[in-house]
């Protein structure tokens, strides 16, 4: 019986019936890690939700699965009161399991790496974001420790025997490893609909001036470096510059939206911005069908899954010059993170012909991220990982 432990700083949800739900972690992610063993333990923070709230998330089935709650030791209070308890839990779980998997950057994952290395446990890293960018763009305090955190993360990745990068080049250059490595996105494009996308591209040419331009971002709502506030500020510029124009900016994601609500009120764009909140992953493509322009304004990323999903839906897209985003979009669609003036300029230049052209280009580029292609690549890498540690398991 091969027991797999997946650990990260994120959270999943549980209702009163002890059923588990997630957004970034769902049933398909569970099945992915069960390729490495017979049972999966998820070690993350846990949030209790009502049955109605649970409907917003994807359910994780109970078979071959268990969850261990990790205290929120990353908060200021938790750093002093819960860190020791959290470390003890991580230590216990690493000792109990045969295969350890983590997504980095992650404070819990970094500690698990040290324990796994000391115990000579099979350890697999998914490198999904830039530590430096996350701290540098979080707040002024983060800038004081960003370089130290960068050095610390680089050292861990360099020593990691097996690393999966979500980018094709960016994270590999910034966080190189001496171990085996491969690039595999976390995206899940199970099926593409070229006919539907072709109709969407054609429809862009028929748009009238009375139709509002529907813009969307899918990202966590309570993290400043995701950049939605920069788009809100750009919309305020556009509203002054083109008062007759109609724009609707839709925000999808989990987390407390109070900071963004304040920005919406501050810049007077209440009638242009709608906060939708979390939606289930299988609803994302349905949502994107109604979107004219996707924008990823993040100042910290890996290779954002939502951008690829938008591209696969035939959405034209704009994105910040962050991590792997320039690997996905054309140069004319890229802006410096935080440059709300540039965001406003790019949106102001959007017309029907540009939408039609970018819709076709993006769909074509998304084809390399189909589920079957990435699953085959992951299966080959997982087999190499298991063979290295002489673990016998059918993948």
Walk me through this protein's architecture.
With 395 residues, the chain is α/β, with parallel strands linked by helices. It is 43% helix and 20% strand. It contains 17 helices and 15 strands. The strands form two sheets. Strands 1, 2, 3, 4, 5, 6, 7, 8 and 9 form a nine-stranded mixed sheet that branches. A six-stranded parallel sheet has the order 12-11-10-13-14-15, with helices on both faces. Strand 13, helix 13 and strand 14 form a beta-alpha-beta unit. It starts with a strand and ends in a 7-residue tail after the last helix. The model has no long low-confidence stretch (mean pLDDT 93).
Task: Break the fold down into its secondary structure elements and pairings.
Elements: E1 3-14, E2 20-22, H1 27-33, E3 39-48, H2 51-54, E4 58-60, E5 65-69, H3 76-81, H4 83-96, E6 99-104, H5 107-119, E7 123-127, H6 131-136, H7 140-159, E8 162-165, H8 170-174, E9 180-183, H9 194-205, E10 213-218, H10 228-241, E11 247-252, H11 258-266, E12 273-277, H12 284-288, E13 293-296, H13 305-312, E14 317-320, H14 325-328, E15 334-335, H15 340-348, H16 352-366, H17 371-388
Parallel strand pairs: 1-3, 1-6, 3-5, 6-7, 7-8, 8-9, 10-11, 10-13, 11-12, 13-14, 14-15
Antiparallel strand pairs: 1-2, 2-4
